[in-house]
Amino acid sequence: MRVAFFGSPAFALPVLDALRARFEVVLVVAQPDKPVGRGLKLTPPPVAAHAAELGLPLAQPRRLRGDATFAEALRASGADVAVTCAYGKILPGSLLRVPRHGFLNTHTSLLPKYRGAAPIQWALIRGETVTGTTIMQTDEGMDTGPVLLQREQPIAPDWTSIELSDALSRQAAALIVEALEGLDRLIPQPQDEAQATHAPLLVKEDGFVRWQDTPQEVVNRSRGVAAWPQTTAFLGGGRLKLSGLSVAEGSGAPGEVLRVDEGGLTVACAQGAVRLLSVQPEAKKAQPAAVWARAQGVERGARFDLWEPAPA
User: Fold this and answer.
1) Domain that holds residue 211
2) Structural domain includes residue 303
């Protein structure tokens, strides 16, 4: 089978490598190079860099809709099927019809739950204990196409978005191979629209601690935003990155510091407390929470600022 692969971030690399091992990858499509770092050096996305290293045919169109040159390149590749994995662009209907078997997408949730750009992160934020991978036939909707295969992935209690992404990347690689090998006998199943939930792209504010939440909700949010935008809190208006959050014993007003000891900082939430191990002030390195607290004179009774969403 001749396969065109659409993907961009490092998450998609195991999927590309699994496809190469079993099929003929005739075209790799990634997002365009982007400026990175303080020097704004033009840098290819990981999938594009990997494809170039392997000598695979590579395309990085700036847009897909209305790009007749790219559509012709896909057609000329002779791909029987296209596979997408975290590509990052909406596919127009005209493109979906080019390969004989259309497009298959590897989506990191058990659809129809968590449709959208950040299913891994929102599954953690919402406290899910099981998620998984779905192989679906791509249509013009947002993750609305019929399902070909699904597999569950238990979520370990201490996993963040980093560990869960790694597990689901490997699962997606195995499942897409299984789907392609059984493509002629798999029966697409429509999704139940009544069960659909959404996982929008994260924004910086999603990382802000809600001290008014329960301890488990605070910890779950921290797990979900571990890769980006990370857990952020404010004290006296100063911005701090927090890590190593866990549920702890204690009670007080939300955001109130209850204890400062060698084990870290214990801060009250609704219906309990959380302990945090590390604090990183702006433009400084991360440090143990107790060391930071002593240096800043943060003692029992200090209050973290409460964050409230802006009015709609």
Assistant:
1) 204-296
2) no
What residues have CB less than 8 Å from 275, skipping those under 6 apart? 244, 245, 246, 247, 248, 263, 264, 265, 266, 267
Write out pLDDT tens, residues 168-214. 999 999 999 999 999 999 999 999 999 999 999 999 999 999 999 99
In a domain, 88, yes or no: yes
The verdict on 17 and 119 lying in the same domain is yes
Q: Which residues are annotated as a binding site?
A: 109-112
| 133 contacts: CB under 8 Å, gap ≥ 6 | 106, 107, 108, 109, 150, 151, 153, 168, 171, 172, 175
CA angle centred on 242, ends 241 and 248, rounded to 5°: 160
Residue 46 CB neighbours (<10 A): 17
Is the pLDDT score of 311 beyond 80? Answer: no
Write the CATH number for 147.
Answer: 3.40.50.170
> Does a structural domain hold residue 301?
no
What pLDDT does residue 312 have?
64
Residues 88 and 214 in one domain: no
Mean pLDDT on 242-267: 96
Share of the chain above pLDDT 70, in %: 100
Same domain, 169 and 35: yes
Gap between the Cα atoms of 125 and 214, Å rounded = 12
CA separation for the pair 191, 182 (Å, rounded): 20
pLDDT at 200: 96
Query: Could you tell me which residues are annotated as the binding site for (6S)-5,6,7,8-tetrahydrofolate?
Result: 109-112
Domain with 277 in it: what CATH number? 3.10.25.10
152-180 pLDDT, tens digit each: 999 999 999 999 999 999 999 999 999 99
pTM (predicted TM-score): 0.95
Amino acid letter, residue 207:
G
Residue 306 falls within a domain, yes or no?
Answer: no
